[in-house]
Amino acid sequence: MSTALAIGPMPTSGFATLLADSWTVAKRDLVHLRRNPTAIISSIALPVMFVMLFGLVFGSAMSVPGGLDYREFLMPGMFAQSMMNGAAVTIAAVSAQRALGTLDRFRSMPMAQGAVVIGRSIADILTSCVDLLVLILCGLAVGWVTRSGVLPTLSALGLLLLLRFAMIWIGIYLGTVVSQEAAAGTWMLLFPLTMVANTFVTPSQMPVWLGTIADWNPLSATVAATRELFGNAGPALSSGSWPAENAMLLAVAWPLLLVAIFMPLAIRRYRKG
User: From CA 162, how far away is CA 222, in angstroms rounded?
Assistant: First the structure.
């Protein structure tokens, strides 16, 4: 018997089955990842390298408008950049499963079909929590501090994971579309998105046209909002544009919009095979 993911209210038993099957798939993905430590190391190594490079090597030479400490300016951007770059990990994992025929075997099993992609999202968000923890420890090591209370700090972490959740669904969809070879090069698409943002410098320090693009980058919204919540922002960091003045709103709206678009696409694409 095959149970498809329904669009709309589900009976309690069907919803319970979906949750149980999703958690089973998530555990399977986590066990598979644990047996592949190279994937864990590679997903963490690049962000850690950037933190050390910019925080220790370039940090003393970089200036921030208003005389703010560059390491405090940098780290929220590094946290958000890592969450966005995580899409490449998801794309690679899903495309590898598709190439190996794992997704086809899942489709033939008596399980809630939506559980496969939902389980993938659960596994990826849990591993992203670990990645974020490692980056936070690295940030503390280079001199970053959060200057706000517990609730704002937790809210900032929530926005970072919300961005990662949106990127997971983009990753799942693209993983079911692109080949395994093409998936290896997706970082080339993510790189300009993470660099043309307020991650390393403020948009006001860029050419006007490039600063406008950076202001509207979904990554910039999350970075600006988390800087504010961590207490690492100042009035001089705002460009005065509408996206900069409404970063907190956009930090929620952008990821929710991306999830609303790519979650149905990913589920539909998986079910079609």
Answer: 9
Gap between the Cα atoms of 62 and 84, Å rounded: 24
Q: What is the mean pLDDT of residues 103-132?
A: 90
Any idea what DSSP says for residue 6?
A: P
The yes-or-no verdict on residue 7 having pLDDT over 50 is no
pTM exceeds cut of 0.85: yes
pLDDT at 237: 64
**Residues in CB range of 171: below 8 A, 6 or more apart:** 86, 87, 88, 89, 90, 91, 94, 124
Q: What's phi and psi for 4, nearest 5 deg?
A: -90, 155
What tokens appear for 262 in the block? 């790519």
Query: Which residues of the chain form beta strands (DSSP E)?
Result: none
133-162 in b/e form (b: 16+ CB < 10 A) is ebbbebbeebebebeeeeebbebbbebbbb
Compute the Cα dihedral for 16, 120, 44, 205 and give only its sign: negative
Q: How confident is the model at residue 60 (pLDDT cuts 50, 70, 90)?
A: low
Taking alpha carbons only, the member of 166, 126, 120, 177 closest to residue 260 is 166
**Domain boundaries along the sequence of the chain:** 17-272
Closest among 156, 138, 134 to 147, alpha carbons compared: 156
Residue 231 and residue 147 in contact, taking contact as beta carbons nearer than 8 Å: yes
- Between CA 86 and CA 125 the distance in angstroms is 10
Question: What is the mean pLDDT of the segment spanning 52-66?
Answer: 71
Cα angle at 219 between 54 and 74, to 5 degrees? 20
- Residue 266 pLDDT greater than 60, yes or no: yes
Please say if the pLDDT value at position 66 is more than 70.
Answer: no
The per-residue pLDDT for range 45-58, each reduced to its tens digit, is: 777 887 877 777 77
Q: Record the tokens describing residue 233, joined without a space.
A: 């922002």
